[in-house]
Every structure is written in C-alpha cells, then in structure tokens.
Amino acid sequence: MTELFPPLPPETKTILDGIPGLIDKVFPLPRRFRSGLPFDIAELSEAFTSDRGSRGVSYLGKPNLLSAYLRYFLPWNLYRLCRLLPGLDLPLNVLHKSNTQCNTYSNTHIEADTIADPIAITDLGSGPLTLPIALWITRPELRELNLEFRCLDQTGAVLDAGKKLFCALAGGNSKWTIRTIKGNLGTPVHGGPAQLVTAVNLFNELFQDLPHTDSAGLRRLAEKNARLLDALAGSSGSILVIEPGVPRSGEFIAALRDSLIALGRSPVSPCPHNGACPFPGGKTAEQGMYGAANNKWCHFAFETDSAPPALLALSKTAGIPKERAVLSFLLAGPHRQDSAHSPESAVMPEGVAGSGSTKIQVRIISDPFPVAQGGTGRYGCSAEGLVLVTGTRGALEEMNSGMLAEFNKPTEKEEKRDSKSGALIIRTQQV
Fold it and tell me: How far is CA 430 from the centre of its chain?
C-alpha cells in the first residue's frame, strides 16, 4: 500500500511550524491592528465562499485583507501542499548549472546572464508564491537545482509579498530564480515551454459564476484551459493542478482530465488508470457500464493535527477551526508518443498493473460508510472503474484517504457488483 499523503518529516514540520512566526517577522502587524485580524480573516473567508459574487478582482490589494490572507489562508494552503507534494513524482530531477543568489525580479527586468540552463516552472495564479514556498519546504533535494519559477498573478502586491517571504525563508544564497509577472490568465509567459506548469486554487475563480447545473459550460472552460496548460508545458512538460476539495472543483478536475487525455497527456496521479473517471461529479453524472459514483467527486481529506500550532490557534480565534483539510488535484504527464491520442492508446501510469494481471490497484477516495451487505465500505478508483472496497470498519479505517491499495482481482465467477452504484465489490480479506 502506498500513501498519497505521508506524515510530515521532522524537518518539514519544523519549517512549517515556523511559518506563522516568519510571516509576523517579515510583515509586522502593529498591535493596534492585531485585535482586528480575526474579523479580517472571517471577512475574507466569506468573500471566498458565501459572498464570492461581490469580491473585486484586486481584493488582495487591500492591506487588511492581504494581511489576513498571509496569516491564515497562505499557511493553510502551504499545509495542504506540504502534505501532497512529497508523495508526487515531479519531473524536476535533472541537475543543471546553478545560480549563487536569491533572484527575485519582475517580468520586465530579465538578465539573460543570470540564468544558466534553468529548469522552468510556470506557476499560474501564484499569489504569494505558495507553490514555490511549499516546494522549498517539502523537497530539500530540489534546493540544489537551478529552478526558474515564472509566477503569474493579477495582483502585484501579493506577488511582492511572496518574494519577500521566499527570500526570508530560503536566504540570500538560494539557487532558485523567482520571476514575477503581473497579469491575468493568458498573459504571455516568455521563455519557452516549462518542464512543469502548475495552478493552485486558480480555476475555481473562473467558474464561480457558472450555475452548478451548467456542466457543459464547465467542460468548455476545462477544454479551453487544458489547451493553455498544454501550450505552456510543451510536449515534454508536465501539468499539476490543485483545487479546493469541493464538489464543483472535483467536477472541473475530472473535465480537465478528459481534455488533457484528448490532447495526448496521460494522468499520472492520483489516477491509477487512463479510462473514464468514475468520480466525474456534477448533477447529471450518469452511471456507466462499470459504475460511476453519481454526484460524487474525486477529492482527498486528511487530519490537521500536524498543522502549525499557531495556525490552529488563530483559526479557532477567527471562528473557523479546521479539523480536516481537503483538496482535489491532477498531475498529468508529457505528451504520449502515439498518434491516436486516445485513452486506449495511453501508457498506464507507473506501477499500475496491466489488464492481464490478477491484481487490481485501487485509489481509496471516500470516507468509510455502512454498506447494505453488512460491514463497512469505501469507494475507490481503479482500472475497472468504480470499486467498492468492503470489510470490517477497523480494516477500512486503516486505509487513509488517497492510499493506493492492491487487492486480488475477483475472477469472472467471483465478480459481484453493488446494486446501488454498479461498483465492482472488493473485499479486504482478498489482500
């Protein structure tokens, strides 16, 4: 069994625990304004949820809301990424010549001789450089690489804040180069295709005004942005998209996955296969021949007990404590070397058993729930489509969200399907 969200290593947890204090040091908040911080956090939280329609495009340009974002939302986003990134096989393992100082500059001041064969990462909707900071915290082996981050965001103030925080964290001798680009999605990003294109909590901003019943509109949006991501990555680059783990985001991720497969890119994670997504989400999802979890979406949840204590305390003070963190994501690989660009011709993700195997690998998705057959079940994703893993509650609770578990595949005579969902039933005692 392989964990998607392994426990935080001691070094990572130490650095992450220090982030709230580092933010206070880099962006000191006068005592007279500190008492209002919980209210600013609550106001910004409403702007992200129930009051989204009235939020302006430059809301983070307001000093009090930027302060709230840096002290609450940035650390929580870092925590989510710090739990996810260590478990992903990111294509950043090529050693290049390196710089000798922390380079942070705007898109209009690029010195060609400061970059020596960098590994390019284009980060869309970068905000306060959440993705670069999380990578630096969680992947110490990357700190010696010459990485060039091209960070795009529409708010200059939040990019500037991210640059200050990154340099305070990484020090003045970082080999990473940070290029900031103020602009909207679609603003040209110069420098050629990137080895990795990322977008964290970006696309939910674009489909927030679409009616929840407009699945066709969501698919069109996914197709459009899949083409953009594909162009920025080039044929040899990979794409990582991470969104909040809410139903609409899960539906978008599933549609984006379909669009990227059509463009010739195979999903690398979390998908253990290249076939139709059995967790498409949406109000109109139909049950296919292999079952589909109608109205259910692909997302993962994990406990927050390892989050920074200062962040947990601030969350409680603001009246929005978090017991679990959730996210939906997709890592798609380079273009396949085939002409058909169809799911059937796709190369299976690494480590996934082929169709002739007697084993079946299942990505655990849902929480445990009682099943009609007795006992407990959890939905999962597999090359066979939707799977219902059943067993004792104790056995099912030992499987953490996102775990990739291997079972014996039922023979044709043994095969049974859940009458409600059409899911293939797998019993844990078959391990």
Answer: 32
